[in-house]
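From: lab user (bench 3)
To: helpdesk
Subject: output format question, protein + arginine

Hello, I'm new to running complex predictions and I'm not sure whether the block I got back is the full result or only part of it. Here's what I submitted:
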Amino acid sequence: MRIHAVPQRQGAVVERARTLPAGCLELSRLAGDIAYVRPYVVPVSREDSPTVDGVANRAVLIANRTAQLAALEAPEGPVLTIGGDCGSDVAPIGVARFRYGEGLGVMWFDAHPDLNTPSTSPSGAFHGMALRALLGEGDPEFAASPAVGNAVLVGARSIDPGEQAAIDRGLVAREGVPGDRVYLHIDLDVLDPAEFSGATFPEPGGLSIDAVAAAIDALPVPVVGAGITECSTTDRAEILKLAPILEAVTTALQRGVPS
Ligand SMILES: NC(=[NH2+])NCCC[C@H](N)C(=O)O
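Helpdesk reply: Thanks, we reran it on our side. This is the complete output you should expect:
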């Protein structure tokens, strides 16, 4: 397997996002130690760019995607992406959708559904639009084509009105396993901030680290890719708490896909 560290912060606009790049690098080191893989750091921009068409830092995000797509050309798989904001998981999931076809489903472990469009977003932050883009909607520049057909939200508890409307019309499910092969997207804000305090956009409540690891261990279908995003802390003790999740994810990825 490969580990791609994507120290992108421009998809988040909160102050705490300033430390996302450093948190990404620290978390990717631990992931590398656990998986015995040297992380590849994708050369994303450290700059900002203006809000265009309702998306903050839009030009920078497009440039960052080009760097990610170049890294995703590597033939060895599967890939564990360590973000960065949740927008850093859009390119790898889009590539997985191409590679694995319609049966690919996405499990979106996140306190937020990330189902905004530029017109419903309260912030202009692309990380809040990431899943909507993967489902083929929102800003056409980012809308996946082919789109992901099936996604399940896990742990969502801070939902904007435009996101609720998308859920109500059945764009995503709230339980079950979304396909015969799955991509795991794990925004660390899915966790209870009382246990892990290092996420960029924490929300009260949430899942325990052990519950997330157990849910991954119990998946009945192959895991073809994964992303762990929104780590804004460099506190070693805090990051070490995440080891059970990294173990579960790397074990699932290394198990591979039966041919
Ligand atoms: N993956 C995340 N941390 N998303 C935060 C999104 C917050 C809010 N819903 C927004 O669109 O701005």
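A quick orientation on your result: Residues 86, 110, 112, 114, 116, 121-123, 125, 127-128, 160, 187, 189, 200-201, 230 surround arginine (CB under 6 Å). Let us know if anything else is unclear.
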